[in-house]
Amino acid sequence: MCGVSMWISPAVCNVLGSKATMFVGALCFIVFICSFFFSITWLLYVASGLVGSGAALLWTGQSAYLILNSNQTTLETNLGLFFVLYQSGAFIGNLVIYFLFTDKTYIDAETRNLVLVFVSVVVTLGTVLLLFLPHYEKEDLLDLDKKGNESNDIVIQKKLAKDSALIQSIESPFQTFKKGWKIIVSVDVLILLFMFFNIGFSYIFTIVYNSCLGFTRAIPKAVEMLPFAGLMSGIGGMVGGILPAIIKPELPLPFNIRPLMLLAFICYVTSYVIAFLNFPDSSIFGYTYDKAYIHSSAYLGILGSLLLHIGEVVYNNETAVLLAKLFPNDTVSAFAVFLFCKNCFSALTFTGSNFAGLHTQLLCLTGFLLLGTLSFWYVSKRLHRRRIEKSIAGVPLP
C-alpha cells in the first residue's frame, strides 16, 4: 500500500503543504498502533493498509520539508541529521524492549499493553510536535504563487536562486502524477533502478539479519542477544547519518568515487561476509542447529548488524542527494519515485526470501550491490559531464 500511495503523495503534498501532509501521515500511525489494543483481525488489516498510505504521506512530507529547508550544499548534511533522528528510534525502542522483556519467557498481556501504551504516547507526542515546525520562507513564496498573487515562478526562482535552492515547481495533482511517470522513464532513473533494487533488497536483509542471529542455536543465548543487535542497528544508522557532516563528500579519489560511498560499500561487503561465515544457510527459515563455516559468535553477528546499517543509511542518503541534483525542480516527485521503487523491490525480495537460503541471498545481495554501485557511479559521472558542458557553454547551473 505504501508503494502504491507514493504515486499520489506528491500531489497531496502539493495541495496540503509539507507540514499538513506529515501530520495526516502521522495520524495514520496512531490509528495503526491503537488497533492492536482491540486485537480484531479485520481491523488490523485495515489499519495495516492505512499505515502504508500514512507512511507514503509522511515520507513525502518529510522529503518536501527537508528540501524547502535545504540547498544544493546543505541537503546531504540535513539528510544525514534526519537519519540520525530517524534511527535513534531503533536505539531507544530496543533499549526499552530490553528492560521490559528481561527474564520473561512469555510476553504477558500486562507487558504487551505497557509496550503499546508507550509506543502510542511517543507517536502521539511526535505527531503533536509536527504542528510546531516553523513555516519556512520558501513555502510562503510558493503559497503566494498558488493564490495567484504577484509572485510567479520567475520571481520565486530569482528570490531563491541566491541560495542555490532546490526550487519545486507548482503544478496540479494530475501534472504532478504525470511528472512522476516522466521521471521514472528518464534514462538516468532507468539506470539507477539497479541502485533502487539494491537498496530495497538490502533493507529487507537488515530485518532478516537479526532474525538469523536469533535462529542460530549454535550461539549461546542468541535470542537474549537480539535487543543488543537492535541497539547496534540503531547506532549504526546514527553513525551513517553523522558521516556526511564528518567526511567531506567531494574528496579527490580515483575514478571520481565518492568517499562516503566507498566506506559504505566496504561496510556492506564486510557485513555480508560476516553473515556468510557466521550463520548457517538454514538460519533464515527458523531455529537451526546446523553449523556455520566458522564457530558462530554473537559479538561478530552484532558487529555485522552495526556495519549493515551504516551502509544502508549512507546508500539511502547518497542516492537521495544524487536525485536532488538530477531533478532540482522536481525533487519531491523524484524522491517519491525512489521510495516507490524501493518499496516494490522490498516486497518482491521479502516474498522471495521465504524460498532461498541465506547464502544464496547473500550472493544475490553482493551482485546487486555491485550493479547498484556501478549504476550510481555511472549516473554521477554523466551528471558531472553535463555540468561541465553547461559551464563551458555559459549556462547557469541549478
UniProtKB/TrEMBL annotation:
Pfam families cross-referenced by the UniProt entry:
UNC-93
Task: Read off the InterPro entries from this record.
Answer: Ion_channel_UNC-93, MFS_trans_sf, UNC-93-like_regulator
- Keywords on record: Glycoprotein, Membrane, Transmembrane, Transmembrane helix
Membrane topology classification: Multi-pass membrane protein
- The principal localisation class reads membrane
| Stretches that traverse the bilayer | 21-44, 50-68, 80-101, 113-133, 183-205, 225-247, 259-280, 292-311, 358-379
Q: Which GO terms describe its cellular component?
A: membrane
Superkingdom to which the source organism belongs: Eukaryota
Location in or out of the cell: Membrane
PANTHER family assigned = ET TRANSLATION PRODUCT-RELATED, UNC93-LIKE PROTEIN MFSD11
Q: Which family does it belong to?
A: Belongs to the unc-93 family.
Task: Quote the protein name from its UniProt record.
Answer: UNC93-like protein MFSD11
The species this protein belongs to is Diaphorina citri
